[in-house]
Amino acid sequence: xxxxxxxxxxxxxxxxxxxxxxxxxxxxxxxxxxxxxxxxxxxxxxxxxxxxxxxxxxxxxxxxxxxxxxxxxxxxxxxxxxxxxxxxxxxxxxxxxxxxxxxxxxxxxxxxxxxxxxxxxxxxxxxxxxxxxxxxxxxxxxxxxxx
Length: 147
Prior knowledge:
The protein is α+β, with helices and mostly antiparallel strands. The chain contains four helices and five strands; from the N terminus they run βααβββαβα. The longest helix has 15 residues, at 91-105. The relative contact order is 0.13. The model has no long low-confidence stretch (mean pLDDT 94).
């Protein structure tokens, strides 16, 4: 059985390992930890862990912003990850449904997500969850390659 709970500071290594895997890079642990600890205390950022028998198997984080062009609050999923052996078992769906319910309860205008174009299976998952491919995200990298 999967249970959901807010992230705790002791979850930092789980998040770190998952995001290093997701991005296929070794992130700076000190910088990562500093950001994680700051974010989990910010009421506009929601971190949710999916546990199986009190062991983390996935997570989702969502930033809530008041956007002028929507004239209201919008939740944007920043990162979501489910351990490989738990994929296609309803964990991601449970995380999305939980965040959507929070959004309905708090009267968000939208729940949005951006995903790298190479993640076609991820796009199909989000579309099955009711997301519509309606925007294009453009990125201007401000860091030198390799930094």
